[in-house]
Amino acid sequence: MRDDLVFFGLQREPFGKHFQVEDGWVEPSREQALSRLVSAVTSRQHAIVTGEPGVGKTVAVRTLSAHLADAHFRVVYVWNVSVGRRDFYRHLSIALGFEPKGTAAGVFEAIQRELRNGWVESRVHPVLVIDEAHCLPDTTLQHLHVLTNFDMDSNPMLSLVLVGLPELKDRLKLGVHRSLLTRIGTHVELARTTPDDTAAFVRNRLEYAGARADLFASDAMTTAHELTAGVPRVVGLLADACLRLAANKTERLISRSTVRQAWHSLPMS
Length: 269
Prior knowledge:
Blueprint: H1 3-7, H2 28-42, E1 46-51, H3 57-67, E2 73-78, H4 85-96, H5 104-122, E3 125-130, H6 138-147, E4 159-164, H7 167-172, H8 178-181, E5 184-190, H9 195-208, H10 218-228, H11 232-248, H12 256-263
Parallel strand pairs: 1-4, 1-5, 2-3, 3-4
Helix pairs in contact: 4-5, 10-12, 11-12
């Protein structure tokens, strides 16, 4: 175990990626947004999730997946999207569990058949989560609405969840993508945290790791929020660096000066 974790009496890394959704903390404003996302998918609709890097888009997807019962929903996650349409559908085929064979048209038809069979045979609704969707080539993005078309667009057998940077919404507004945009009923935009939310986020993660008392002075936490601009991923990186530095200094309550010193050790400072 890391020396700084031992120094502060922690049982696990507080800011690693291994935490479970139920152990995380969601501020009220984000909780409402995530509820809208879950509601859209459980209603078999399409949705987009946008936000700047590090604000928690992937955590939102994990939260969505955790709220969907396995007996009724099948979440398929695709992230390698900066490829052509044929390769995209090949990746999707593999994610669905079968080997893509034949022409691009044949692979596409096999995907729709797999999705339809899952619904007809077991009433399991597939949810296709496409991460980094802002990187999709136009030819692939233009074709997604065709993938969702079942029974002359009368049977919603697939829900799309497009996840990406804010420019994804701007791209969807372009005329060539209007067929897809008009099918999307929910937009969840994840913002940066407030000062109070930043402090609550750090406190929650430290408690998850076993902290029995506050490890940051109040002014230190304010400084951490100002330096990170409330981006949760960066907050976690800074807080982790603070733990290491404070342990080296045998500082039990992390001070504002330690926060500033730790910040200058990070590449984004």
